[in-house]
Amino acid sequence: MLTRPGLGQTPRARSRKDGMLARGLRASGDRYLAWIRRHPLFLDAALVLVLLWLAGPFTAVPGSRRALVLALMPVLFIPLVWRRRAPSAVFAVIFAAALVQLFASQELTDDAALLVAFYTVVAYEPPQRVLSAAVALEIGAVLVVLRYITPAGRQPWALVFFSALAAAVGFIGYYARTRRAYLASLVDRADRLERERDTEARLAAAAERARIAREMHDIVAHNIAVMIALADGAVYTAADNPDQAVTIMGQVSATGRSALDEMRRLLGVMRQSDVAEHAPQPTLADLDDLLVTVRAAGLPTRLAVTGQSASLPPSAQLALYRIIQEALTNTLKHACATAAEVRLSYRPGEVTLEVTDDGQHRQDGRPSQPGIGSASGNGLIGMRERAAVFGGEVSAGPCPGGGWRVYTVLRPGPEVA
After folding, report:
1. Residue 183 lies in a domain
2. Which range has the worst mean pLDDT, 106-115, 150-159, 192-201, 299-308?
3. What is the pLDDT of residues 172-188, one digit of tens each?
4. Which terminus of the chain, N or C, has less C-beta within 10 A?
5. What is the pLDDT of residues 312-342, one digit of tens each?
6. SS in 3 state form for the chain?
7. Percent of the chain scored above 90 by pLDDT?
C-alpha cells in the first residue's frame, strides 16, 4: 500500500526533521554569503550583467545613434566590476562617458551605473572625494534637467527629484560605510579581548604553577629533612638502644604519612575536587605540631609570642606557617645548629616574625644554608613571594653573635592588633 512520505512519523520526528532541514538551509546560505564576501569581483560582474540587461531596451534606436549607444554602454557599465578597488577612478570614467552620452545622444542609459558608482565612492572613499563626486553628480543632474525637461515649470521639480535620488543613494552608502566600520571595530575588539584573555590565562597559569611549586617545596623539603634527621638518629641509636631506634622510626613513619596527606590534599585541590574532602590549610594553631616534629628531629626549638592577634586572615597565617617551616627546614638541612627560636610579635597593622638558630657558618661570613642565605635558593624566593602578597619583606643573614636569622614583616591590614 502506498503512503504519503512522512505520514507514519510522529509530530516530534517531523519537527526534528524540519529543524534539521532549516539548519541545513541556513548553513548553506551562510556558506554562500561567506563565499560572496571572499570573491566580491564575481558579485560585481553579476551586477554589471544585470544592469546591461536592464539597459537593453534603450539600445533599440534607429540610425547612427544606435552605434554610439552600443559603443558607450561598455564604458558605462563594465568599470563597475572594479568599483571596490578604485571607486573614484571608476566614478570618473563613468561620469565622463555619461557626459559624452548626454551631449551626443538623446538616450540615457547611465543613470543606474552613475548611482552605483556614487554609492561605492560614499561607502569607501574619504570625505573629500565623496564631496567631489556629489558636486559632479549634482552638476550632471542640472545638465540633464536643462537638456531633457522641456517645460520650464517642471525643471525645478525634476532637479529636486534627481537630487533626492542622489542623496538617498549617498545615505545608503554612508550607512554601509558606518556599518562596516562598526563591524570592523567589533572584530578588532573581539580579537583584542581574546588576546587579553589568553594573556590573563597564561599569567594565571604561571601564578598557579608558582604557588603549587611553592607548596610542594614547603611540604616535601620540610618533611624529608625531618625524616632524614630522624633516620640518622635511628641509625646511631640502633646498636645501643634498639627501643629508642624503633620509636624514632615510628616518628619517621608518622612524618611520612603527614607529608603524604598534605601532598594528597594539594593534588586534590589541583584536580578541582571538592575541597571540603581534604584537610584544611595549616594555620598558626598548627605551629605546636610543627615544632614537635622539628624537636623530634633533634633540633630543640622554642616559640615566643608577644601581642595578640584579633583576626589574622587564614592566608596570612598560612604564609607565616610556611615561612617558619621553611626556615626550620633549612636549619635542619644545612646548619649544625643545637637550638632554634621562633618569635612572633603582633603589632597594630603588622606582624613580625623572627627565626634564629646557633648554626655554624663558613669563615667568609656566608651562611652554610644555601636554601636561605643564597639569593638563588628556592627557599628565600618562596618566603619573599609569600610576604609580598601582604606588603611585607623578608631578610636573611648571620646574627651578630653567631648563628643565622630570618626576619619577616607582614602587613595584612589594620585589623591585626
Report:
1. no
2. 106-115
3. 989 988 888 888 888 88
4. N
5. 888 888 888 888 888 888 888 777 788 899 9
6. CCCCCCCCCCHHHHHHHHHHHHHHHHHHHHHHHHHHHHCHHHHHHHHHHHHHHHCHHHHCCCCHHHHHHHHHHHHHHHHHHHCCCCHHHHHHHHHHHHHHHHHHCCCCCCHHHHHHHHHHHHHHCCHHHHHHHHHHHHHHHHHHHHHHCCCHHHHHHHHHHHHHHHHHHHHHHHHHHHHHHHHHHHHHHHHHHHHHHHHHHHHHHHHHHHHHHHHHHHHHHHHHHHHHHHHHHHHHHCCCCHHHHHHHHHHHHHHHHHHHHHHHHHHHHHCCCCHHHCCCCCCHHHHHHHHHHHHHCCCCEEEEEECCCCCCCHHHHHHHHHHHHHHHHHHHHHCCCCCEEEEEEEECCEEEEEEEECCCECCCCCECCHHHHCCCCHHHHHHHHHHHCCCCEEEEEECCCCCEEEEEEECCCCCCC
7. 4
Asked, for residue 193, whether it belongs to a domain, the answer is no
Instruction: Note if the pTM is more than 0.85.
Output: no
Q: Which three cell numbers stand for residue 381?
A: 624566593
The x, y and z cell numbers of residue 196, run together, are: 587579553
pLDDT tens-digit series, residues 226-262? 777 778 777 877 777 777 777 778 777 777 777 777 7
C-alpha cell read off for 336:
649544625
Which of 148, 180, 208 delimits the end of a domain?
148
